[in-house]
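Shapes recur. Our protein:

. . .
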Amino acid sequence: MQNQNTNAIFAIAVIMTAFTAVLQFGSANLAFSQEVPLLPINTGNETLDISLPVFYECIEEAVDASENAPQQDSYFEDEPTKNEVRACYQAVFIDNPVEEENNNDEDEEDDE
């Protein structure tokens, strides 16, 4: 009797494991993302509105540049690393703020 119970429990465990494996492997990559048009950025902050597209372009270029980098996880072939995001943030918002560029352009126009 105990042998039958053990066999039944083992059979149920095998069936449940097989069912779980089928669900895991069968449902992988069923969702496909689709490109959608971007909305224009209008935050009310002119500096931010101008800098965000530059920031995202910087990230895109950094990801493209590091696509075949050695010792890099395959996830980062399409996604930025933390260091890439930090470097782009530094370059766009800290080192080269748009406000300074706008002020310089206005100063040059005033000089003419």
User: Anything to note?
Assistant: The mean pLDDT is 79.
